[in-house]
Design a protein that fits this description.
The chain has 272 residues and is α/β, with parallel strands linked by helices. The protein is 29% helix and 27% strand. The protein has two domains: 34 residues, no CATH class; 226 residues, Rossmann fold. 36% of the residues are buried.
Length: 272
């Protein structure tokens, strides 16, 4: 039986289109919208921006999965040795990813967040099909230095979002011939090529290895939620070379499979 004092989510949504109720009252109801979080189970959220990157995960998944929709966001759940996983396509870009993670965290108990996808190399030592795993992530294009923040630092946040080092211990037992790099990943709201990357901006950071369009947003959401995160980026293209777009379109699936293998290895080889 429904408690008469419990707000019905559908009713609240309908109120937004009602003109006979004062707007202030509608806003008040929206502010008190309850968080209905499932009890018990914890989930690792596996956030994947693109469909082709999600396909790379499915191609490497060797356990049964179940299709599930969380708050309108479709994905799959599957078991791993470190617990249940909900994997979904978070769409490209910082706002898309942050929005979906926020919505899902209202329903599921989040144990950690893994962000898996492709990126463009910023380093002469990082090549196509290599994998970069973040020690830290930062925003390439956030500038609050006028208020004495470090370049790339978001208001109310640390200069860098630090990934969870303990979750990466199983990398030592990985028996794949994939070149893995650990270091700084930058995030921008643009697909970077040699035509739009700004060397002066890059000089604000200490040896960034690659650049994506979601990682720092994942770090910020994890920071706000108080949960650990990791970012895994397969290199599909090299920013400072010609033909970046062509390389990304042709190599995204092949390179993403390398990242998917590493993510699944980490999920299935935790000691705690």
């Amino acid at each position: 039986m429904k408690d008469k004092n419990t707000l019905d989510l559908g009713t609240i949504d309908e109120l937004e289109d009602r003109h006979d109720i004062p707007l202030a009252k509608v806003k008040k109801l929206m502010e008190t919208r309850p968080i209905i979080r499932e009890k018990g189970e914890e989930f690792t959220l596996l956030s994947i921006p693109m469909e082709i990157e999600f396909k790379a995960l499915l191609d490497n998944l060797d356990v049964e999965f179940r299709r599930r929709v969380i708050e309108g966001i479709p994905g799959i759940t599957f078991p791993s040795k470190s617990g249940n996983v909900f994997a979904f396509i978070s769409k490209v870009g910082r706002t898309n990813t942050a929005f979906d993670l926020g919505i899902i965290s209202r329903r599921l108990n989040v144990k950690r967040i893994i962000n898996l996808g492709t990126a463009g190399s910023l380093s002469d030592n990082v090549h196509s099909f290599d994998v970069v795993i973040a020690n830290n992530v930062a925003y390439y294009d956030v500038d609050l230095t006028a208020f004495d923040y470090t370049y790339g630092q978001m208001s109310g946040c640390p200069p860098y979002f630090r990934a969870d080092p303990s979750f990466l211990k199983p990398l030592d037992s990985l028996k794949l011939t994939i070149r893995i790099h650990r270091g700084l990943i930058l995030t921008a709201d643009s697909f970077m090529t040699q035509n739009n990357v700004n060397q002066e901006i890059l000089s604000n950071f200490d040896n960034p290895l690659c650049i994506d369009m979601e990682g720092a947003a994942v770090g910020q959401v994890a920071y706000r939620l108080g949960v650990p995160f990791i970012i895994i980026r397969s290199i599909s293209d090299v920013v400072h070379q010609d033909g970046t777009v062509h390389a990304h379109e042709n190599f995204a699936l092949m390179s993403a499979k390398n990242g998917a293998k590493i993510a699944l290895h980490l999920l299935n080889n935790q000691t705690n």
